[in-house]
Amino acid sequence: MAVLRSWKSHSVLPGFGLALGFTILYLSLIVLIPLSATFIKTAELGWGEFWTAVTTPRALASYRLSFGAAAIGALLNTGFGLLTAWVLVRYTFPGKRLVDALVDLPFALPTAVAGIALTAIYAPNGWLGQWLEPLGVKVAFTPLGVVIALTFIGLPFVVRTVQPVLEDLEAEVEEAAACLGASRWQTFAQVLMPALWPALITGFALAFARAVGEYGSVIFIAGNMPLISEISPLLIITKLEQYDYAGATAIAVVMLVISFALLLLINGLQWWISRRHGKRNP
Amino acid sequence: MSAVISHPLSVLPVPASRATQEPAWVRWLLISIALGWLGLFLFIPLAAIFTEALRKGLEVYWASLVDPDALSAIKLTLIATVIAVPANLVFGIAAAWAIAKFEFRGKQLLLTLIDLPFAVSPVIAGLIYVLLFGAQGWFGEWLQAHDVKIIFAVPGIVLATIFVTFPFVARELIPLMQAQGTEEEEAAVTMGASGWQTLWRVTLPNVKWGLLYGVILCNARAMGEFGAVSVVSGHIRGMTNTLPLHVEILYNEYNFAAAFAAASLLAGLALVTLALKSAVEWKTGAELRARNEETSNEH
Can you give the pTM of this predicted structure? Predict the structure, then answer.
């Protein structure tokens, strides 16, 4: 009992053992043990073989595309997401509630459906593709198509992280800035932005993390040419289909390690923001 | 005018002074850019799905939906969802009870671990089960000897679906139950209620909207998951094809009308999800405002 009390504070509520026990059992069976299988499988390879498997030119090209396109998409979403959140919080226009609800579409729409819809639009004979083709801009079946798909998939994140912060900002701060002679732009850049940037970074990181692992919406529009428009998750599947389990797992481990680092970063950021926020509004 | 004055002051929209409001042309420019951006990435793709689905007429549309392969794909999608959502619901409630109502060491680590499936690529979510249960996997030989099929069969699809929808309910419930504290539960237990009674009569009614919200999101992802399911399914028509995989197969066969017809079902599902989600948000927002007004009236 003394040992128990040292890591859990006393409570009159029952069910702690059952709830925590079930949580840990379920978490282990569904997530932790299966995930650890990738690391154990990779250990069979040995360091040299692992390094060769994850640094082939095809693998390197796929990381460049997956991480590069995800970063561009997340950056686009940061800029336009801030603008969208600003417009949705500060202005009124007809249909605003509908637009606000539709922002979450990329969360709700199955990725394969998004993939074929974007391809239909940007294919050379598609709705937008037919206008871009004469200009020499090819979107579908090129790396640009990957950027489009990953932008779509990450669109809601920045809007949804910035929106609540903008709503909570007190009008008095902006009034004070205006009284002290700041222009509207100065108020935005020097008063509002410092309050917004933690939310912007969190939104960027979430959009980036989601886009890096994305598969369904990308494979239809990407063209999937090795070395050019092949994303890392697709390379994993290709290797699996060739029964190269070790090779597939090695690339998966690289992606997992980077994703876990991102997850820790995001959690750290959110913890830091909530602490900062909590201090300001006790 | 009198109608306006009779309103309590707090609900009147505060007229923004000119110093903290952008000029009208800036406002409309920003609104146009934002709507243009959303149009390009949200409205046009959404419209494209339904237009392409109906391009060859209603008859072809209907025929693609009642095709036996389509129907069996719909059935499998429903089976996977009906197992995955309740499983993650029970987990979500258990995890939220342990994490939100008790103080213990390692809580932060547990929270991060629960979030893990969101950080894992769907393809890797499928891969891990292939490594465990596939022919070459840890349990492959044992499963083969006992004639149990998990990979390229329904159990694998269910497992992959559970994995990708794992955090949804827990994530909604934990912050909500933390915010509500433990006073009401402690009162119930002190007055002699059992743990289950407390959970059913006190805790769950308090978090019902958050619970519903989590279930809606979990359900949408379970029905729409593609990458993870694609790895473990084996794409056997009429057997291990879910609706999103059915869309892919039709599309790769250049049967665009049928692919978009199946896709339009999933898009419809997404729109229903968004509508329900907004309704729940609106409902919780209204309750929260009512509660805030009550407490501010008391003071």
Answer: 0.89
Tens of pLDDT, residues A123-182? 988 899 899 988 988 888 899 999 999 999 999 999 999 999 999 888 888 888 888 888
Does domain A47-280 bear CATH number 1.10.3720.10?
yes
Which residue from B minimizes the CA distance to A173? Answer: B20
Contacts with B185 from chain A: Cβ below 8 Å? 13
Within chain A, all domains assigned CATH 1.10.3720.10 are found at 47-280
B-interface mutation test, from A23, A172, A242, most B Cβ less than 10 A away = A23
The token pair at B193 is: 């209620």
The closest of B219, B201, B197, B200 to B280, measured between CA atoms, is: B219
Phi, psi of A14 (to 5 degrees): -90, 175
3 state DSSP class of B255: coil
ipTM of the complex, rounded to two decimals? 0.89
Whole-Å CA distances, A222 to A130, A139, A263? 17, 9, 26
Cα distances (Å, whole numbers) of residue A279 to A274, A282, B80: 8, 6, 45
Return the closest-CA partner of residue A252 out of B166, B133, B117, B120: B120
